[in-house]
Amino acid sequence: MSALYENSVIEIPKAPTGIEGFDQITRGGLPRCSSTLVTGGSGSGKTVFGLQTLVNGSRLFGEPGVFVAFEERSRKISAHVATFGWPMTGWEILDAMPPPDVVAIGEFDLAGTLAILSAKTHAMKARRIVFDSLDVLFQLLPSVQERRREFNRLHSWLLDEQLTAIVTAKLDWVEASTPPPLDDESLRYLPYIVDCVVALTNRYDNGFSQRRVRIVKYRGSGFSENDTPFVISPSGIQVATADRTPISKTIAFEKISTGVMALDEMLYGGVLRGTTTMITGNPGTAKTTLSGAFAEASARQGDKTVYVAFDESAEEIVRNLTSVNIHLQEHIDKGSLSMHSENVARRCGRAFSAH
Predict the structure, then answer these.
(1) Which domains does the chain have, with CATH numbers?
(2) Which of 10, 104, 207, 211 has the fewest CB atoms in 10 Å of its CB?
(3) Secondary structure of the chain in the HEC alphabet?
(4) pLDDT tens, per residue, the chain with 355 residues
């Protein structure tokens, strides 16, 4: 057994956001002591996401934070926070918005700003930080190389300070998993250096707003890869998930073997207990074989397992899987596996003939 397989159930430490539903689709929250890029177009909810994570970090998890504002004045942000009824204690706003008539002369870097931030974060023992609209600051830097240099400087500072960071920027993923084409190549660079990328979208269809969140990337962790609807309610962002139960380390991070070792390695240990996995494919692509392998592995490790088939009879499935060295009958005899079959097509045919 490979080292990858043996250690695959270990996931990176996470900082919960306290955002309803979001911690479920990320299996615990954002990467702790690391950087997350939150992207989206105008009005997609990037600033609200950053503020809510910071507020919850302070009031729910005892982690003070700093909100660094590059696009709006602190007074306006405070008023925005008040509309949600969130407390202003336990975290602070640093007004870093450049004046509208500022002109960059000579070489500019973030060293001075980071020195100020170091003093502030150390004084308040901050554990979280949000850089809102970093792309606004980048406009002061004339070249792609300088922008990359400064983001690398910022990224290194965050790692040294051991802060859980959110960086927001105006990038708008639509369908592709890669960043959209941009005139500013420095923004295209951002998703590759951070550990997590969260894409927020806000589309209008027939007069209705459709907000969605997608986890584009998450190093060292599993996550829900699908677009998930969310709303911005009077209490903040709420992400729609099927499971509203609290995160449990026993359930959320336990992996179950698929019965195929190579596939388990690809999935870093198998599938998560308590989740649903869909297997799709054309006829003959081994969907039943993989289902049988999973059922056998589950029954072998002592889990009570139910196999429900809608195409073939239980006897046919057991017989056919034996030919590929998957033996279900012994587990049926022991009572650890229960087989149920219902040929839907045959039943529909009988019902049609009766009419």
Answers:
(1) 3-239 (3.40.50.300), 278-354 (no CATH)
(2) 207
(3) CCHHHHCCCCCCCEECCCCECHHHHCCCCEECCCEEEEECCCCCCHHHHHHHHHHHHHHHHCCCEEEEECCCCHHHHHHHHHHCCCCCCCEEEEECCCCCCCCCCCCCCCHHHHHHHHHHHHHHCCCEEEEECHHHHHCCCCCHHHHHHHHHHHHHHHHHHCCEEEEEECCCCCCCCCCCCCCCHHHHHHHHHCCEEEEEEEEEECCEEEEEEEEEEECCCCCCCCCEEEEEECCEEEECCCCCCCCCHHHHCCEECCCCHHHHHHCCCCEECCCCCCCCCCCCCCHHHHHHHHHHHHHHCCCCEEEEECCCCHHHHHHHHHCCCCCCHHHHHHCCEEEEECCHHHHHHHHHHHC
(4) 444 444 444 568 999 999 989 999 999 999 999 999 999 988 899 999 999 999 999 999 999 999 999 888 889 999 999 999 999 999 999 988 766 555 554 466 778 889 999 999 999 999 999 999 888 777 777 777 888 888 888 889 998 999 999 999 887 665 444 554 444 555 677 888 899 999 999 987 777 778 999 999 999 888 998 889 999 999 999 998 755 444 444 444 578 888 998 888 877 788 887 778 889 888 888 899 999 999 999 999 888 999 998 888 889 899 999 999 999 999 999 999 999 887 644 544 444 344 4
Answer yes or no: are the C-beta atoms of 39 and 113 closer than 8 Å: no
234 vs 334: CA distance, rounded Å: 54
